[in-house]
Amino acid sequence: MRLHSLLALAVALCPVSAFAWAPSVQTQHLLTRGDAWAEVLPDTNGAGLIHAAIDIAAPPRTVWAVMTDCRLAARLVVTVTSCKIIQGDQARGWDVREQVTRGSLFVPEIHNVFRSDYQPFTLIRFRRVAGDLKAEQGEWRLQPLDGGAGTRVIYVNRVAADIPVPAALVRAGMKRDTPKVLMNLRRESVAAAGRSGV
């Protein structure tokens, strides 16, 4: 019975440990000098496992506000054409969002519906609900820096899309684009902090 309980606990903890990535000492050095960092590892069923991070000179509350504002989605991910909340709200600790990104020569338009669960100013866990992605599950972690004057943002996502492009090329695209999104998040967060006088 005890062994059964331990196995059940291990299974329950497995999804959490999959996203327990943290920047290495070498990566932290790159972050402190101002770089955005990302890697994309191959995962099961053609998915990519994204690990990424950036340091931002704005408080977690400010970064959080930028990240969770649908009106700013296209400033963070430039291919976003639509973002709307279709169920729930942050005040209740969760919401479901519908987001559309425009296609390109090899990648079709992608319609994505995902649920986010919120722990204000520290953690956003998200997962696919419906849409064109085969899989999406991950989290954003916000860690205060410099006594709360800054924020380290850590991003982990296991994502797979059902598109006629080799998985290696999809992963290369994610590795190229993820740092751009993080740099956009930094720009918008620093600007928001400046407007609020923080």
CATH superfamily: START domain
Query: What average pLDDT do the residues reach?
Result: 89
Main pleated-sheet profile: 8 strands, antiparallel
Q: How would you sum up the global shape?
A: globular
CATH class: Alpha Beta
Task: Give me the number of helical elements.
Answer: 5
> H/E element string?
HHEEHHEEEEEEH
Radius of gyration: 17 Å
Unreliable runs: 1-16
Would you give an account of this structure?
The protein is α+β, with helices and mostly antiparallel strands and 198 residues long. It has a single domain, classed as Alpha-D-Glucose-1,6-Bisphosphate, Chain A, domain 4 (2-Layer Sandwich), CATH 3.30.530.20. It has 5 helices and 8 strands. The protein has an 8-stranded antiparallel β-sheet, with helices on both faces. β7 (133-145) and β8 form a beta hairpin. The longest helix has 30 residues, at 167-196. The protein is globular. 27% of the residues are buried. Residues 1-16 have low confidence and may be disordered.
SSE diagram, text form:
Layout: H1 2-18, H2 25-32, E1 37-42, E2 48-56, H3 60-67, H4 73-76, E3 80-89, E4 94-101, E5 110-119, E6 123-131, E7 133-145, E8 150-161, H5 167-196
Antiparallel strand pairs: 1-2, 2-8, 3-4, 4-5, 5-6, 6-7, 7-8
